[in-house]
Here is the input.
Amino acid sequence: MFVPTNPSGILPANDYPTGSIPTLDEIGDFEFQGTVTVVTAVCEGANAELIRSLGADRVIDYEKEDFTKDRERYDFVFDAIGKSSFLKCKALLKRDGQYTSSGGAENAFFALVTPLLGGKKVPFVPPRDVAATLRFILDIIERGCFRPLIDRTYPLDEIADAFTHVASGQKLGNVIVVVDD
Here is the structure.
């Protein structure tokens, strides 16, 4: 997912607690010094309408187009799936743009190195305030900005199947394992 804005602002990645992922609506509602954020998402073409319904303004179908070749330049690139890297997405970033990902040891290395080099960065902000994180989550739920996308639900005795589905890279949303009392 990409978030282009005008040069006056960059998505405040530090406002999101580590481990929490803002919804597209939440990102789309940010305003920077009077400008509205536009969200571009990357997904399989079959899921484009679903992703638009979650708040994306523009969708790139990765089956038809290499998103790393996009001509748009972004203040913030967020890889929610963890399948990309800073090096692959660096050209997409504006001069002082930021890249973050939900995974990848390579990206952890760049979180240490890029602040020293100036310009494009991979920020890493360790969790600081659990109470503030919980208030943030409660706030976005109460405002109706949090809309979880549930792919599948598995009973505990099918946890191996749940793991296999997640590991397949084909899940769309969260996978829930239900533990009965």
Remarks:
- The two ends are 38 Å apart (CA to CA).
- The chain has a mean pLDDT of 79.
- Residues 105-117 form the longest helix (13 residues).
